[in-house]
Amino acid sequence: MSTRTFQVWRGDADGGDFDEYDVEVNEGEVILDVVHRIQAEQAPDLAVRWNCKAGKCGSCSAEVNGMPRLMCMTRMNLFEESETVTITPLRTFPVVRDLVTDVSFNYEKAREMPAFRPPADVKPGEYRMSQVDVERSQEFRKCIECFLCQNTCHVVRDHEDNKEPFSGPRLFIRAAELDMHPLDDRDDRRDQAQDEQGLGYCNITKCCTEVCPEHIHITDNAIIPMKERIAGDRYDPLVWLGRKIFRKGKRPEDTTAAQTKTE
Amino acid sequence: MTTTEDTAVSPPPRAAITPRNLRTDSWMRGPILTVVGITIWVVYATFRVFYQGDYWVPDYHYLTPFYSPCVSEGCIPDSAHFGRFLPDSPLIPYAAVSLPFLLAFRLTCYYYRKAYYRSFWLSPPACAVPDGHAKYTGETRFPLVGQNLHRYFFYAAFLISVINTYDAILAFHSPEGFGFGLGNLVLLANVVLLWCYTFGCHSCRHVMGGRLKHFSKHPIRYRLWTISSALNNRHMMWAWITLASLALTDFYVMSVAAGWIDDLRFVN
């Protein structure tokens, strides 16, 4: 057990500042334990959002020493005993109070996303898919919606005006999940991603991947494959020519989707 | 480069946190190393490309990758496996038909984009460190929308890797006929590493099978995609290793061609 110093940002949308706390830390504890001890012993009005304390609910997202992290998954042995640890709310979203932010931006963007649409002639209970066809999408289902990726993405973190045209990495993996889904019947996922979600804003600097607590390869497995698919649709003259000659205007995947419906 | 302190990370209704970033780790190390590494390589490569000498070892048929394919009228005839049709000028590299495509392939590579956007353009320099620019439109407009042409440069790089492989095979030569020396190992290692980089390219991964919706209908392409994906997992590593291997291979061939060292021969 040792006593460590923490600087916790306290305040709301009207302003705030760092408060300093000296807290006893035990072996094996995480940042969220420390925040709870501060609440219990020194600042009962400290606002913090948390739930599972197991890295699965995505509630306790914050920034620890400037890095977006889940507080419940950030072990204290990451830090030197003499080090002052700063804890701040997510900096991309409006602050509610102390460590709690309003993450409704992400839900608004999610509502704009067209839902999964199965083929019209396939009823629930009749979905049949090969494991090999769905495993790419399954990686993206690990997302716990902690929104650390959304928070760290510089496109909106540093440029508030981009929040309107840009949905962010969390929604890009949703777009990729559906575009790669063997039974999704929509053929406008890529257009949606490029035109409505602002995929072109992403300059693939991979911070979303770096901070993902579920270690989803957001950039390599979702964003870049979507960029490549869009490049094929829009910027590849050979693909365009081949489609004109052999497919009569249809994308190859449209043809495949049509075949699936008839199977 | 224009940089700014005026980014959106702190104003209300966001938390009014005065320091623009609170990271305490050495986040500057990555960008600095990237700038140093890429700058050194570009200076060396530029010097070698325009040097127009010591690129061919006649006894052992070693040709440096910086001069492959050698297609200038100034090329030594034996080194020009594909003819000599470009004018001999100090401003035109001997391998001017391949170098622009290789440069564009690396410039538009998804790994290098991350590297130079972070280190040279500071957009952003590191995660949760403010962007160096007040305005940001990403790759939505000219010229950066051109990054979408990466696939074409991949096709070109693929062909050039085939040519490099051909050069490495032709280099099993000595004045007595077949021969094998340390230079062959260097050329072969470079070619293998180039294939690891090229085959692990994100565009290659897409072309091999990433574009498909139903892997189960295309087992061979699925297999190719899995191999490409395995290499793609280490794309950054291959990117740096191949920069080093290209420069070291070139330097070795230059050293032997200039007579600074003798090639260690195993056979003939």
Automatic annotation (TrEMBL), chain A:
<dbReference type="GO" id="GO:0022904">
    <property type="term" value="P:respiratory electron transport chain"/>
</dbReference>
<dbReference type="GO" id="GO:0051539">
    <property type="term" value="F:4 iron, 4 sulfur cluster binding"/>
</dbReference>
<feature type="domain" description="2Fe-2S ferredoxin-type">
    <location>
        <begin position="4"/>
        <end position="91"/>
    </location>
</feature>
<dbReference type="GO" id="GO:0046872">
    <property type="term" value="F:metal ion binding"/>
</dbReference>
<keyword id="KW-0411">Iron-sulfur</keyword>
<dbReference type="GO" id="GO:0005886">
    <property type="term" value="C:plasma membrane"/>
</dbReference>
<dbReference type="Pfam" id="PF13085">
    <property type="entry name" value="Fer2_3"/>
</dbReference>
<dbReference type="InterPro" id="IPR036010">
    <property type="entry name" value="2Fe-2S_ferredoxin-like_sf"/>
</dbReference>
<keyword id="KW-0479">Metal-binding</keyword>
<keyword id="KW-0560">Oxidoreductase</keyword>
<dbReference type="Pfam" id="PF13183">
    <property type="entry name" value="Fer4_8"/>
</dbReference>
<comment type="similarity">
    <text>Belongs to the succinate dehydrogenase/fumarate reductase iron-sulfur protein family.</text>
</comment>
<protein>
    <submittedName>
        <fullName>Succinate dehydrogenase/fumarate reductase iron-sulfur subunit</fullName>
    </submittedName>
</protein>
<dbReference type="GO" id="GO:0006099">
    <property type="term" value="P:tricarboxylic acid cycle"/>
</dbReference>
<dbReference type="GO" id="GO:0016491">
    <property type="term" value="F:oxidoreductase activity"/>
</dbReference>
<dbReference type="InterPro" id="IPR025192">
    <property type="entry name" value="Succ_DH/fum_Rdtase_N"/>
</dbReference>
<dbReference type="GO" id="GO:0009055">
    <property type="term" value="F:electron transfer activity"/>
</dbReference>
<dbReference type="GO" id="GO:0051537">
    <property type="term" value="F:2 iron, 2 sulfur cluster binding"/>
</dbReference>
<dbReference type="InterPro" id="IPR017896">
    <property type="entry name" value="4Fe4S_Fe-S-bd"/>
</dbReference>
<dbReference type="InterPro" id="IPR006058">
    <property type="entry name" value="2Fe2S_fd_BS"/>
</dbReference>
<comment type="pathway">
    <text>Carbohydrate metabolism; tricarboxylic acid cycle.</text>
</comment>
<dbReference type="InterPro" id="IPR009051">
    <property type="entry name" value="Helical_ferredxn"/>
</dbReference>
TrEMBL record, chain B:
<feature type="transmembrane region" description="Helical">
    <location>
        <begin position="91"/>
        <end position="112"/>
    </location>
</feature>
<feature type="transmembrane region" description="Helical">
    <location>
        <begin position="152"/>
        <end position="172"/>
    </location>
</feature>
<feature type="transmembrane region" description="Helical">
    <location>
        <begin position="178"/>
        <end position="198"/>
    </location>
</feature>
<keyword id="KW-0812">Transmembrane</keyword>
<keyword id="KW-0472">Membrane</keyword>
<protein>
    <recommendedName>
        <fullName>Succinate dehydrogenase</fullName>
    </recommendedName>
</protein>
<feature type="transmembrane region" description="Helical">
    <location>
        <begin position="30"/>
        <end position="51"/>
    </location>
</feature>
<feature type="transmembrane region" description="Helical">
    <location>
        <begin position="238"/>
        <end position="261"/>
    </location>
</feature>
<keyword id="KW-1133">Transmembrane helix</keyword>
